[in-house]
Specification:
binds zinc ion, 667 residues, binds adenosine-5'-diphosphate, Rossmann fold, 7-stranded parallel sheet, globular, GIY-YIG endonuclease, 32% helix, single chain, alpha/beta, 4 domains
């Protein structure tokens, strides 16, 4: 007699277990979707394991009712789910639901593929550069030999990475294997898809991203599952495409924060990609002009192979980057948001009918506190990250350790009284441009625009047609835009990203500046970039100015190592969410005691003070979090204890949800 261990489709944390069913004469495999009776109801589930014997009393075991072949998964996916459950401390079903479509299939005759109407104007370049050819040879050889290798392509902006991707994709298809191509959500524009459709044709491409309707998503899922699609292009959810025989996964702009999920399951896309490829002996390719510190460190540790593309395909030199010291401007009596240098350059560009991009990356974060005189930024002495000003309590708060401080009335560095809460937003920039340049056409592109995709595309289209002179925006303007007439890029306040309360803030600033600079001078003429800041000596800015990734990497890893931040340690966020503050605080307290006991000496000074999650929005519920600074080699052990604590909380049916986020991108 054979038995199946089934994970039941459900949302409840109380049934996160295997349930045993009899297989009988049905054709059941690992991954099969099955219908079973569960309690008084019929439910669906997935088979995670099959065995000949069971301890469950025979009279308690029911038979599987039906196998749903069309929606079944394969063994690799189940293995990946099991791994995810352990790694991210999640429920079985949280992992499963990544791989299965939500929504219902569309009726056969009404099926509509997204991007069906897209007509491609892609032309394959006739000759590739030497660097491109070398990269292709190296990656192709791993693909041909089915070596489970990973490559990090460090290529300057416009070095022609996408052409390299397409060549190695072709190689993979020739081997009769499949490909996943991932981009950050926000760069998944028709322009990108256009190129792939032009090269490979619509028929073998499927797309997966969060902006598809549920039906579109189901239909695409089905095309992938039925082996009709050989290439999946997607945002991070594309990594879960139910493809078989995956030969290659590419992650473009691998450094982007959107590859880390901030919703349950809080997975890291590159880890899932790597895991899936191990099973298939496939190749991982990561590409970026500014590799993440974590990825570059993996190259240094011998985990990734590095490929460098140092030249732009058309040999236009990279734009010239200048740093303007805004403290000097203030001393000279200029209190406007534009330095004289940026103002003059804008005037010049507009006069010459060239276009300008202004970046002001002010998103929903609260303000940081700094001295206008000397540029000193208030930081937490423990955590070395900038303090956030909270208006309600009129205090500066550290979002890591919870320490609160009064705003000083004098600068601790230079004693000046000009302590200010900073926070120029894009709207203010737009308004100022209009005031100073009344004849220029100005448009704004920020997070609000992304809610409405059409509006986003319309703004970009008007800009590409030259109808807009100045485009003001958040980091959205830094991503992948390929416009030939942009002569000038201005970064209104580099301090905005430098001082977000996150240990990655320097890394993000370096990336953002390099990326946005890459938008200038994509035509014949060299572009110009002006960065305004109160901290002109910041190492991230100085390295970005000379496109010196190496020196940035060195300075940054030195600090990270010292602070035990990733990749030299893990920050584990444990979140306690519920309706009753008393119950939550009791749980937090129990957790701290439990962990201190479990970890003993290892945990000393590594369990930070609990903190109310200010940004948490939940109907009627509140959230506290505790951050743990886990040594790099102890991850599995610590997660094991946390899981055990979660299980105890569930078993006791305590009204408090406990979740884990490892190396969270925002708190
Ligand atoms: P990246 O992704 O490195 O920024 P892309 O692959 O988008 O660069 O290439 C930038 C531009 O250069 C694109 O318009 C692309 O078609 C063009 N290009 C890339 N490689 C070549 C080549 N070998 N010959 C001609 N044009 C090329
Ligand atoms: Zn000062
Ligand atoms: Zn702190």
């Amino acid at each position: 007699m054979a038995y199946a261990e089934v994970v039941i489709e459900n949302k409840s944390k109380y049934v996160d277990n295997y349930f045993t069913y009899e297989i009988g004469s049905l054709d059941v495999k690992i991954g099969s979707k099955v219908k079973v009776s569960f309690g008084t109801k019929e439910k669906f589930g997935y088979v995670f394991s099959i065995k000949e014997e069971t301890d469950v009393p025979k009279d308690k075991i029911k038979a599987i009712l039906e196998v749903i072949e069309e929606e079944s998964l394969n063994e690799e996916i189940i293995k990946t789910c099991l791994w995810m459950k352990q790694r991210y401390a999640i429920k079985y079903f949280d992992a499963i639901k990544c791989f299965v479509p939500t929504g219902k299939p569309t009726k056969e005759h009404k099926k509509k593929e997204p991007y069906k109407d897209l007509e491609s104007d892609y032309i394959k370049p006739e000759i590739l550069t030497n660097e491109q050819n070398l990269a292709i040879t190296e990656i192709s050889s791993a693909i041909e030999n089915k070596e489970n290798e990973a490559f990090l392509i460090h290529g300057v902006t416009a070095s022609g990475k996408t052409e390299v991707y397409m060549e190695v994709m072709e190689k993979t298809l020739e081997m009769d294997r499949t490909v996943i191509f991932l981009v950050p959500e926000i760069s998944l524009t028709p322009q990108i898809i256009n190129r792939f459709i032009g090269r490979f044709g619509k028929d073998i491409i499927a797309v997966l991203h969060s902006k598809l309707t549920q039906r579109e998503r189901y239909d695409e899922w089905e095309r992938i599952k039925n082996n009709k699609a050989k290439i999946v292009i997607g945002a991070r959810m594309g990594v879960f495409a139910p493809l078989d025989n995956i030969g290659l996964i590419i992650m473009d702009e691998e450094h982007e924060a959107t590859y880390k999920s901030d919703m349950t399951p809080k997975y890291d896309t590159v880890e899932v990609a790597y895991k899936r490829l191990q099973y298939y002996k496939g190749v991982l390719v990561l590409g970026s002009a500014t590799p993440s510190i974590v990825s570059y460190n993996r190259f240094r540790e011998g985990i990734y192979n590095l490929i460098e593309l140092k030249e732009r395909y058309n040999k236009t030199p990279l734009p010239d980057i200048e740093i303007v010291d805004m403290r000097q401007e203030l001393r000279k009596g200029n209190v406007s948001i534009f330095s004289r240098k940026l103002f003059n350059a804008m005037e010049e560009a507009i006069k010459n009918k060239e276009q300008v991009i202004l970046l002001q990356n002010r998103r929903g974060y609260s303000n940081f506190v700094s001295c206008r005189e000397c540029g000193y930024v208030m930081k937490c002495p423990e955590c070395n990250i900038s303090l956030t000003y909270h208006k309600s309590v009129d205090k500066m708060v550290c979002h890591y350790c919870g320490r609160e401080q009064k705003v000083p009335n004098k600068c601790p560095e230079c004693e000046s009284k000009y302590i200010k809460y900073f926070g120029i937003g894009t709207e203010q920039v737009e308004e100022q441009v209009k005031e100073y340049f009344p004849d220029a056409k100005v448009e704004r592109l920020d997070l609000d625009a992304i809610k409405n995709r059409r509006e986003l595309e319309a703004i970009l289209k008007r800009f590409s047609q030259g109808k807009t002179d100045v485009l003001v925006g958040t980091q959205l303007v830094a991503k992948g835009l390929d416009f030939k007439n942009v002569a000038l890029v201005g970064v209104v306040s580099a301090d905005t990203t430098l001082n977000i309360p996150d240990y990655r803030s320097s890394e993000r600033t370096f990336q953002l500046i390099t990326q946005v600079a890459g938008r200038a001078g994509r035509g014949e003429k060299q572009g110009q970039v002006i960065i305004q800041t109160y901290e002109p000596n910041n190492y991230a800015l100085i390295a970005a100015k000379s496109y010196d990734y190496g020196s940035f990497y060195q300075a940054e890893t030195y600090l990270r190592n010292f602070m035990e931040y990733p990749p030299f340690g893990h920050i584990i966020g444990v979140y306690f969410t519920g309706e009753s503050e008393d119950i939550i605080l009791e749980r937090v307290d129990t957790f701290q005691t439990y962990m201190s006991k479990a970890l003993g000496k290892d945990g000393e000074g590594r369990i930070l003070k609990p903190k109310l999650a200010n940004n948490f929005k939940g109907q009627g519920s509140i959230r506290y979090y505790v951050l743990l600074k886990c040594p790099i080699e102890n991850r599995n052990k610590w997660i094991f204890y946390i899981n055990d604590f979660i299980k105890k909380t569930i078993d006791k049916k305590i009204d408090c949800n406990v979740n884990v986020d490892i190396n969270p991108y925002s708190i």
